[in-house]
Design goal:
The protein is mainly β and 490 residues long. Helices cover 12% and strands 41% of the residues. The strands form 7 sheets. Strands 13, 15, 19, 20, 22, 23 and 24 form a 7-stranded mixed β-sheet that branches. Strands 2, 4, 5, 6, 8 and 10 form a 6-stranded mixed β-sheet that branches. Strands 12, 14, 16, 17, 18 and 21 form a 6-stranded antiparallel β-sheet that branches.
């Protein structure tokens, strides 16, 4: 009788307690005509649940007490556990997790009584069950995948029972900042898209959360995997914070071939972290010469690797889905032509960007080259620019510097470039910029005109005088010849 009362207290104590594990224990009542256990999969992945009978006996009484306890059909080797009734009598909320782990890791289980694959958000009923305590666990290694998490143990006295799995996993989000440095002095808020100049150091942020059952883990591995496209170069300046407070130790930053990782081998070693904590990593990356111009952009992704099994201290991990931001950049294409729209050689240009303080920053400069008539200025942000002709084709007039602005529209939800245009600043020379969103280009023809033909020294007036002089000289010579002949004859 004393044994029965202690088991009753044990059962009631676990009625609402969740403990760590890759499954959960449940008791099924023999008083029911058909005992059953319905499992609701609340996770984000399919789960294959395996059912094992650990204890069997007679269930009855006002509090559904289990008596005459023996080892169940799911236990192949009870050696080391002792008598079933004594083992059941010894279980407490503090040691039941260890008992379940010993059953699984100690290879004490037979083939599952039943097993079933249950889709995410669905349920399944194990029915026609004999009275007893049942262990339900996920198939080994089945949750070592994206968004995977193993179920936890729960102990209940049941007849016909519906039990939700208690599953949770962390999440991660990535953000980027934007700036129009022709207008703004500081970067804006965190967002999903931005456009920048090649050479800019771009701020990025990673923000990770923790699972609701974080307290159930004895150790917890937590790794940020940041992957950058070829157009971005990590500046190795990561700052790690927990709930806004900077961390100096407890993690390792490692540069990889295409990004970097921030690894916490055991997050539990850092005091003060709870299931509600947020872990952030802030850093900058330079937009380099390999940046992709146009609507494809330069993506930057992150995913978390995290411990997925609160039963074990092992290395079992899963990953979150990737979260992505995109950085866009553009180009200006200048075609040098004459008044007839024919390509014109001998020109050179420089492009400068106007900064917020009124100064101008050189983007690129082209000197005149043989046969060069097209000039590309790559890696431009939105903002105000000045195009200056520094070499002029021989015989043509130099154009005045042209001030213009580039404007873009980004869809922060869809991560796309939806509009790109350029216009001359009011009051300046007319400029026709043709946009191509896919290529991220603004193209224009810069026309040079020849100078007017001015009168030359020794022009038409002089030529007339020369002609008249020659005629007069010729007439004079003829007159002298005739006059001399007359004199001889006389």
């Amino acid at each position: 009788m004393k044994n029965i009362k202690r088991i009753a207290r044990f059962i009631l104590a676990f009625a609402l307690i969740l403990v760590s594990g890759s499954g959960f224990l449940s008791s099924v009542s023999a008083a029911e005509v058909s005992n059953s256990l319905t499992i609701e999969n609340t996770g984000k992945t399919p789960h294959t649940f395996e059912l094992y009978q650990i204890f069997k006996g007679d269930l009855g009484g006002e509090n559904n007490q289990l008596s005459n306890i023996t080892w169940g059909n799911g236990v192949v080797d009870s050696h080391g556990f002792g008598e079933a009734s004594a083992k059941a009598d010894s279980l407490t909320p503090e040691n039941v997790k260890s008992f379940a782990n010993d059953l699984v890791s100690g290879e004490k289980l037979k083939d599952a009584t039943q097993s079933k694959k249950v889709a995410a958000g669905s349920s399944y009923t194990f029915d026609n069950l004999d009275a007893g305590y049942y262990l339900v666990k996920d198939t080994d290694t089945s949750q070592d995948k994206e968004e995977g998490a193993y179920t936890l143990y729960i102990l209940k006295v049941v007849g016909t029972v519906t039990q939700k799995t208690k599953l949770d996993m962390p999440s991660v989000e990535k953000k980027v900042k934007d700036i129009n440095d022709s207008v703004d002095k500081e970067h804006g808020d965190w967002r999903n898209t931005a456009d920048h100049d090649i050479g800019d150091n771009i701020p990025f942020q990673l923000e990770g959360t923790l699972p609701g059952n974080y307290d159930e883990y004895e150790s917890y591995k937590y790794v940020f995997h940041d992957t950058q496209s070829e157009g971005l170069t990590f500046n190795n300046d990561a700052v790690v914070k927990v709930d806004g407070a900077k961390l100096e130790t407890g993690y390792e930053v490692k540069i990889t071939d295409n990004g970097f990782t921030v690894t916490f081998d055991d997050l539990k070693e850092i005091e003060g972290i709870t299931k509600n904590s947020k872990i952030t990593v802030e850093y900058t990356a330079k937009l380099n010469e390999n940046a992709v111009i146009g609507s494809t952009g330069n993506p930057n992704e992150v995913h978390l690797e995290y411990s997925n099994d609160p039963n074990n201290i092992g290395d079992g991990t899963s990953t979150t889905p990737k979260d992505k931001v995109i950085v866009f950049t553009y180009k200006l294409v200048v075609n040098k032509v004459d008044a007839e729209k024919e390509a014109l050689t001998g020109a050179g240009f420089k492009l400068e960007k106007k900064m917020q303080d009124g100064s101008y920053k050189l983007v690129k400069e082209y000197s005149a080259e043989k046969d060069k008539t097209t000039f590309e200025f790559k890696g431009l942000d939105d903002g105000q620019y000045r195009l200056t002709e520094i070499d002029t084709p021989e015989g043509y007039n130099t154009i005045e510097p042209i001030e213009f602005k580039i404007e873009s529209t980004l869809d922060d939800d869809e991560l796309t470039l939806i509009n790109l245009n350029g216009n001359a600043i009011e009051g300046e020379v007319e400029l026709d910029l043709t946009p191509n969103i896919g290529e991220g280009s603004l193209t224009t023809d810069i026309v040079n005109k020849q100078g007017p033909e001015l009168p030359e020294t020794g022009g038409m007036g002089t030529k007339v005088i020369y002609t008249l002089g020659i005629l007069l000289l010729g007439g004079g010579l003829i007159y002298l010849a005739v006059d001399r002949k007359r004199s001889v004859n006389n």
